[in-house]
Design brief:
With 106 residues, the chain is of the alpha+beta class. It is built from two helices and five strands. The strands form two sheets. It has a three-stranded mixed beta sheet. A two-stranded antiparallel sheet has the order 1-3.
Length: 106
């Protein structure tokens, strides 16, 4: 989600008490040191995103989910065909598997 706050903020600390941060629990991560927010300016390459400003997160439920991959998609792939940005944030993608639980009949 777009929390617009850093990992040291109370909101993220609270979320991490109940949920796992998919970036931290993923078996494989890509581009996790890049900033998730770029403010609608075009980045020629990923070096312009290495500010470390992470304000977007994916959280998963511990115990019944497994995160195999977590990836940040840089802004140079975040442009519509007509040149407009889809968002001022980079996309985050996680491959999450939810455990299969049997539903008890009553």
């Amino acid at each position: 989600g777009d929390f617009n706050t850093t990992a040291t903020a109370a909101a993220i600390k609270t979320m991490r008490t109940y949920f796992e941060d998919a970036k931290l629990s993923a078996e494989q991560t890509t581009d996790v040191t890049l900033s998730t927010h770029f403010g609608f300016y075009y980045c020629e390459d990923e070096s312009q995103l290495k500010t470390g400003k992470v304000i977007d997160y994916i959280f998963n439920t511990p115990g019944n989910t497994t995160v195999s991959t977590f990836k940040l998609i840089p802004t140079n792939t975040n442009i519509c065909p007509y040149g407009e940005y889809i968002s001022d944030h980079c996309a985050l993608v996680a491959n999450v598997t939810v455990a299969n639980y049997a539903i008890a009949e009553k």
